[in-house]
Design brief:
Largest sheet: 5 strands, antiparallel
Order of helices and strands: EHEEEEEHEHHEHEEHEEEEHEEHH
Structural class: alpha+beta
Number of strands: 16
CATH architecture of the largest domain: 3-Layer(aba) Sandwich
Strand order of the largest sheet: 14-13-12-15-16
CATH topology of the largest domain: Rossmann fold
Number of domains: 3
């Protein structure tokens, strides 16, 4: 089977992280007797006439079985997500769907969805100015706090702030533009000690779980590509339960769920629609890319049967 993969990387400037993950997926597809074809978002055009259609390098492709979406974008989220939607409108099966990507790519939307579903998260505020900052700080209770942008991945857009004065000055600086994006202020969980869990889920199966440990001096982020150490993790029943609930709430086919262990129980830090493959593969020794390929093939095959 031909399996297509949509990436938002620039084909002339593919970084090593993206290339390594493309290679993992390509090799996994070959091992299963399939061929992986990469589609670059910049080569796609959306056409609207009597019905929506999709052109790739100015040619309409009618024989695409399934598209694996690597939602590796942080800007122009609505426009780029519309491209994923266009594949769906053209009758093509995608993994993950556009609505699920939208929910996960915006951390504000994610925390709304999680709390509505009664899934535990660290105490979180969304702010777009510093006017009521004292009340926010008093409710959170202590420094340091975590400051995040509403988009970001692989640890980007995340800072630790040690003082009230530092937090106010940064918020004032970032939000001085009336059209600036809001910021996320989140409690810092001291007992986590620079550790978190990444749970890789495909639909209703946990494919792998790892513990990520920050190792660089002064670094609180445990991300693998920031130098964090990884090792296989054993999950508690509660950790499995909230990971599944988080993926279901966002509607994702596959996801990386980040969990932090606190004195009051596990809490969800993030639900990632574009989870890295290298770290989890290294930690667990499992063919994570191969599992994504199997799922995509299954989804395409079911779609063909339903059309008959």
């Amino acid at each position: 089977m031909l399996i297509h993969l949509l990436t938002f990387s620039n084909p002339q400037k593919i970084n090593s992280l993206t290339q390594n993950e493309l290679d993992l997926l390509r090799v996994a597809a070959q091992k299963q007797g399939h061929q992986l074809v990469v589609i670059f978002a910049k080569d796609c055009q959306m056409k609207f006439d009597r019905k929506p259609s999709l052109l790739i390098k100015n040619h309409e492709h009618k024989k695409i079985n399934v598209v694996i979406v690597r939602a590796n974008f942080l800007t122009n989220i609505e426009f780029k997500n519309s491209l994923i939607r266009q594949f769906e409108l053209a009758g093509i099966k995608v993994v993950n769907r556009s609505i699920a990507v939208r929910r996960a790519k915006n951390k504000l939307n994610t925390v709304q969805i999680l709390t509505e579903a009664k899934i535990p998260v660290p105490k979180t505020y969304i702010v777009n100015h510093a006017e009521y900052l004292d009340d926010v700080i008093n409710d959170i209770g202590r420094f340091p706090v975590i400051l995040k942008t509403t988009t970001g991945s692989h640890g980007s857009g995340v800072s630790i702030i040690e003082s009230r004065r530092g937090l106010k000055s940064i918020i004032d600086m970032i939000t001085k533009n009336r059209d600036s994006e809001p910021l996320i202020i989140q409690e810092y969980v001291k007992e986590s000690k620079g550790k978190d869990l990444r749970v890789f889920i495909i639909k209703k199966r946990i494919i792998g779980a790892m513990e990520r440990i920050a190792t660089k001096k002064g670094e609180f982020r445990s991300n693998f590509h920031l130098g964090g150490r990884v090792r296989v993790a054993t999950l508690s029943p509660e950790e499995k339960k909230i990971a599944f609930k988080a993926v279901a709430a966002c509607g994702l086919d596959f996801a990386g769920v980040d969990i932090i262990r606190t004195n009051s129980g596990p809490k969800i830090l993030e639900v990632n629609a574009n989870p890295g493959l290298e770290g989890i593969t290294l930690a667990t020794g499992r063919d994570i890319a191969g599992e994504i390929i199997k799922y995509a093939v299954k989804k395409a095959s079911l779609s063909k049967k339903n059309k008959k």
